[in-house]
UniProtKB/TrEMBL annotation:
One of its GO terms (cellular component) is cytosol. This is Ribosome maturation factor RimP. It comes from Lacrimispora xylanisolvens. Pfam families: DUF150_C, RimP_N. Belongs to the RimP family. InterPro entries: Ribosome_maturation_RimP, RimP_C, RimP_C_sf, RimP_N, RimP_N_sf. SUPFAM superfamilies: YhbC-like, C-terminal domain (SSF74942), YhbC-like, N-terminal domain (SSF75420). Residues 15-85 form the Ribosome maturation factor RimP N-terminal domain. Required for maturation of 30S ribosomal subunits. It is found in: Cytoplasm. GO terms for biological process: ribosomal small subunit assembly; translation. CDD domains: YlxS_C.
């Protein structure tokens, strides 16, 4: 197992009981390098939305545990946050939670001379994603052709 996956898995298994205890949902854990720094990020959510205080509580407990276990060799920055808008949908549970929501989809290559689509997420399976476009027309896209799918910003 890659170091990254091991760190994510260990962190996830520590967080699961905390999530249950607080009625939170663990959306994702990622260990990524950005601009030369390693980040260990936990995305958490709950009915009605996560607050800064919620993130603070989890961050403190997670930080203490990580200091004690000390299994990550690199120096890294710990972040605990809510998934928020504009976060990519990756896992089935992300899609499930977003049914009926507006999503932006970016394709790797154009379909009918268009790469960007916005619509309401109607359904998905392991191969496809279906949205209802503004004109009511349904559009089914193949998941391998989707570069990015995320909740749309409504401003």
């Amino acid at each position: 197992m890659a170091k990254r996956e091991e760190y994510e898995a260990k962190t996830e298994s520590f967080l699961m009981p905390l999530m249950k205890e607080n009625n939170f949902e663990l959306v994702d854990v990622e260990y990524v390098k950005e601009a030369g720094n390693w980040y260990l990020r936990a995305y958490i959510d709950k009915e009605g939305g996560i607050t800064v205080d919620d993130c603070e509580i989890i961050s403190r407990k997670l930080g203490d545990w990580l200091d004690e276990k000390d299994f990550i060799a690199d120096s890294y920055i710990l972040e605990v946050s809510s998934p928020g808008l504009g976060r990519p949908l990756k896992k089935d549970k992300d899609f499930n939670r977003s049914i009926g929501e507006d999503v932006d989809i970016k394709l790797y290559k154009p379909l009918n001379k268009q790469k960007d689509f916005t619509g309401t997420l109607i359904s998905f399976d392991k191969d496809t994603v279906t949205i209802a476009q503004e004109d009511g027309a349904e559009l089914t896209l193949n998941r391998p052709e989707i570069a990015l799918i995320r909740l749309a910003f409504d401003f």
